[in-house]
Amino acid sequence: MKRAALVVFIVVAQACSAPLSASGVVYQKQVACQTPVHVVYVDLNNSDVKVTVAISKAGRGSSEPAASIVSRTQPKAAITGTFFDTRSLLPTGDIVIAGVRAHSGCVGPALCISADNRAEIIPHKLRDRSRMSDYETVLAGGPSLVYNGQIALNPGAEGFKDPSLFRSTQRTAVGITAAHKIILVSVNRSVSMHRLAKIMLKLGSVQAMMLDGGSSTSLYANGRFLSKTSRKLTNLLLVYEKPEDYMSAIGQLAPTLVTEQQVIARADRPRHEAEDYRYEPENGSWSDILARSSKPAVMPFDLRAPGTRPPSTAWLSFIK
């Protein structure tokens, strides 16, 4: 009897700790590991929900105020995306928007979400073994925080070298729970990377990775910014509660790259004909797409050159 009562108590406690709402996108302010945090719960079991990325209006190599990106894309929620080089303004991680590669990066794990809302965070070392064409949305960030339900911190192995990355500062992160929900988290007080990993674990993440932070920390939910940066950003991770809102925003997610017609055409194409994002197509189609961007498709290093190393994270927006 006592055991049965204990099980009931645990179930009730877990239910009370989770946001109760018919909505697919729910915001809560919570305390985790003795730290106040802003959390957006995104229910991927709700087929109406869409998670995507938006880049700055002028395309790769440009930036835009977070409030401006939100204003033109009209998401239900939004959070800071991946790091970017503060000189070239090019993101350091891969970005795929509505099945179209918007940018090729070089470091970190990747949040990958399919058209039917299957989500996973693929570690940096495993990304070359994954068919990235199976995913509609890709955002590579990092470092990893949680993997297989355990804290997993090894920034150096993922291409993050600068020791300044470990200092306490404001942080943002994205996680995936066992209940197939994505959680977007911002911490407005200075915390260490390890504390952030503990927070993500406490909030129920079985997989989690860090996003850009410091002076780039930004979170939008409930119609307002709960974490707001004065710095211009190059990309945001967005959430839509209704498919019609997502489709209305398609033309604004990456205005120089993605159109509604492209998205519809890709949705109608057999899966085996989809591009494999691990490789540059022989017909140069990605080069043609990137050429339409306002800036040349130039990285400060050659990603395919033998022995190439990622750039120092001293350039990253997180440090400044």
* SS field, number of helical segments: 6
Helix-strand sequence: HEEEEHEEEEEEEEEEHEEEEEHHH
Cα separation of the termini: 58 Å
Biggest sheet layout: 7 strands, antiparallel
Helix content range: 10-25%
Radius of gyration equals 19 Å
Q: What would you call the structural class? A: alpha+beta
SS elements, strand count:
19
Query: What share of the residues does DSSP label as strand, in percent?
Result: 25-35%
| Strand order within the widest beta sheet | 1-2-14-13-15-11-12
- The parts where pLDDT drops under 50 for at least 5 residues are 1-17, 271-320
Shape: globular
Average pLDDT for all residues = 79
Structural commentary:
There is one protein chain. With 320 residues, this protein is of the alpha+beta class. Helices cover 19% and strands 30% of the residues. It is built from 6 helices and 19 strands. Strands 1-2-14-13-15-11-12 form a 7-stranded antiparallel beta sheet, covered by helices on one side. A 5-stranded antiparallel beta sheet has the order 3-19-5-16-17. The chain has a 5-stranded antiparallel beta sheet with strand order 7-6-10-8-9. It is globular. The protein starts with a helix and ends in a 29-residue tail after the last helix. The model is unreliable at 1-17 and 271-320 (pLDDT under 50).
